[in-house]
Design a protein that fits this description.
The complex is a heterodimer of chains A (276) and B (150). Chain A is mainly alpha-helical. Chain A has one domain. Helices cover 65% and strands 5% of the residues of chain A. Chain A is built from 14 helices and three strands. Chain A has a three-stranded mixed β-sheet, sandwiched between helices. In chain A, helix 8 runs antiparallel to helix 10 and helix 12 runs antiparallel to helix 13. Chain B is an alpha+beta fold and 150 residues long. Chain B contains five helices and seven strands. The chains are: A mainly alpha (276), B alpha+beta (150).
Chain lengths: 276, 150
């Protein structure tokens, strides 16, 4: 019984807190105010919902190519890459799809929704070149580049809301969501990422291709094709830096990465799916 | 009576300290795998909020135990550390646990998306088609093998 009382006393001592003074309460309130006015940090789940809205916005501007066979193949190539990336597990999983337009482009919405146009897929000569485009876009997701396109004032505004307000779906929060979507869509479709972000995505793509077993030289080949299209002044990768500049640093990166085997076998299945 | 409650709380706290580290699944869907490799067999499908007990760490992988005793590997990016708040265990105290709060999407969530649906400038119908077209994990292993990938 004495032992029991001793344990209970220990529990009480551990749980005891001195009474909080008014002064301390005031300090605590100030701390709470600081927390509530801090910039809002986007969680993985929020990234997913922002990404869905961005993708839905892009889909309102480009028709979706509902080719189930090729889309499944695209998802297999994409997922093979994702598993070797720095962010293999993401809230809603990665999803890859095709846009029915001759314009050559690729977009990565937050949360792992990656959209490729028919134009860019037509430019790819084989699976390794298709993987090179996807690897570049996956690297943007790994670095959370699309989220960085959101103007800081949006997150500051969201940070001023109380937890209850922010967790609800008030018109103010919806307004901030819409503005954030427009920030990201504007960057993806027109403004483009910074040169540093693009360079990091290219160099990261080289490593990812090598880690997955694809030929890193495929990225260089794709950029050379883009350069040729740019010369004709066609609309290709309009929101990306000029291919010339990218070719320079990708060339030196390719030398560092080893060429992989099995490219012929992968090219054969690419032709099979591309014909569908 | 109150002393008894505090004693139980003390025992619970001691049990928590002795037990393995708690983890909680933070992605919508994942799997407990036979090996620390995405291409190994799936032993158990787990969903967001599933609680797991950490047994050991192997690189970027955790060997965990599920509630049913099932052991398996899960990648670190799929889980978060489960912070059990002693505050929620205090007799008579109500409210969401830290896990629940951490997993709730503040700011941008499903409710906000519903307000965008049907609005001009958003095509959620085609987005749903995309979300349905997913390559199963089981299909990935032969795809990687046949393409001589890693």
């Amino acid at each position: 019984m004495k032992k029991l009382l001793l344990i209970a006393l220990c529990a009480l001592l551990l749980s005891w807190r001195p009474p909080i003074s008014v002064k301390k309460l005031s300090k605590a309130k100030k701390g709470l105010d600081l927390v509530s006015s801090a910039t809002h940090k986007i969680s993985e789940e929020e990234e997913y919902y922002i990404g869905r809205a961005v993708a839905a916005n892009i889909l309102s501007q480009y028709p979706l190519w509902k080719n189930a066979g090729f889309t499944r193949y695209l998802n297999l190539v994409g997922r093979a890459l994702v598993l070797r990336s720095g962010r293999p597990e993401i809230f809603g999983g990665y999803h890859f799809a095709l846009l029915d337009t001759t314009e050559a482009n690729a977009f990565s919405a937050p949360g792992g929704i990656i959209l490729l146009t028919r134009g860019i897929v037509d430019m790819a000569g084989d699976e390794d070149e298709l993987a090179a485009i996807l690897a570049h876009e996956i690297q943007h997701i790994v670095s959370k580049d699309p989220l960085k396109a959101i103007k800081s004032q949006r997150m500051k505004a969201l940070g001023t809301f109380t937890a209850g307000e922010a967790m609800g779906s008030s018109n103010q929060v919806v307004g901030i969501l819409q503005d954030s979507v427009m920030d990201i869509s504007g960057t993806l479709l027109q403004k483009g990422y910074s040169r540093t972000q693009e360079k990091n995505a290219d160099l990261g793509a080289l490593e990812l291709l090598a880690a997955t077993g694809y030929d890193p030289g495929a990225l260089l080949a794709m950029l050379q094709k883009v350069k040729a299209v740019e010369k004709k002044k066609a609309k290709a990768f309009s929101a990306h830096p000029a291919a010339d500049k990218r070719i320079a640093y990708v060339s030196s990166g390719v030398k560092a990465e080893q060429a992989q085997s099995g490219r012929q076998a992968r090219a054969a299945r690419f032709r099979k799916y591309a014909r569908r | 009576m109150k002393t008894k409650a505090w004693f139980l709380l003390f025992l619970a706290a001691a049990a928590l300290l002795l037990a393995g580290k708690g983890l909680v699944v933070q992605v919508l869907r994942s799997n407990l795998l036979a090996k620390p490799d995405f291409l190994s067999a799936s032993l158990l499908a787990v969903q967001k909020g599933t609680k797991l007990e950490l047994i050991e760490t192997q690189g970027n992988w955790y060997l965990v135990r599920g509630a049913g005793g099932q052991k398996g590997y899960i990648h670190q990016t799929a889980v978060a550390e489960s912070k059990v708040s002693l505050g929620t265990m205090v007799p008579g105290k109500k409210g969401a646990s830290e896990d629940e709060l951490a997993l709730a999407a503040k700011g941008f969530n499903e409710g906000n998306e519903k307000k965008l649906r049907g609005g001009k400038g958003y095509n959620f119908a085609d987005l749903e088609w995309i979300m349905e077209q997913n390559a199963a994990l089981a299909a990935l292993a032969p795809f990687v093998r046949d393409g001589r990938l890693k």
